[in-house]
Amino acid sequence: MRMEEFKAKTTEEAISLGLEKLGVSFEDVKIEVVEEGSKGFLGLLGVKPAVVRLTVREDLEDTDVLKAVGLTRDEETATVKEKAEKAKAKAKPEAPKAEKPAKTEAKPAKTEKAPKAEAPKRAKTEKAPKAEEPKKEAPAKAAAPATEGEAEARAVEFLSNVTKMMGVEVSITPRRDEEGNLRVDMMGDTLGILIGRRGETLDALQYLTSLFVNRGQENYIRVTLDTENYRAKREEALTRLANRMANRAVKTGRKVVMEPMNPYERRILHSALQGNDAVTTHSEGDEPNRHVVITLK
Predict the structure, then answer these.
(1) Of 47, 87, 143, 189, which is most buried with the most CB atoms under 10 A?
(2) Global pTM?
(3) CA distances from residue 195 to 108, 163, 261, 264 in whole angstroms, order as listed
């Protein structure tokens, strides 16, 4: 009994691969699904291939018989083809008899041309539903904003899965601000891994959470992710830094070039010095090295 296991992304692909390699058809084997394939989380984490076991039916495993008569499997198929060709040759004399009624049946087909005149009538009756196409209000369901609590539930679901895979235990609290934006706070003991260097990991999680929450929604919901009040603390630190660098520019009479920052942090710097009478700010460079420059007015 010939039995082999095959792996692929999906069960169907694994079965097709096995049939191709074994050189048999679907009905010639017994199929066992050893393991269902898994796309994992976002197609990145926990991806598992599908595993199937194909067992060739015993009535096909007659290699011993073939060896006894001195035939290989290829030779056996050749003899089968020869028998098939002989059978076709015997059937040829009977073929003309079958073709004669076909000619007589072709004539009634001419009389069937009459229904063609009825085709416009059918088309007219089918046009009526087109007038009812305003029923295509189904897309309006997709356009409708997320129901109260739906966006919050999506955010919690996504972050719970990610933090679990990262091995971090957190409590997640979503809330809406006065403008309807979604703010999600995470609390725990080891949250440094979620913040990362200068908040880069937190920003990445915020971006992915926003994608997940707004998937399938036409009304965009702004998502802000925070942990241990990191955003507020970072904003205060950047505001102090902006004022300090502005004073340096005034004292030295030269422009001050800040270190590269992400768009969120650059906006904080611009906002902090927007009302300053002595200096002005602008951004230079390309991501990820884009930075703020403070110059005298």
Answers:
(1) 47
(2) 0.46
(3) 80, 12, 15, 15
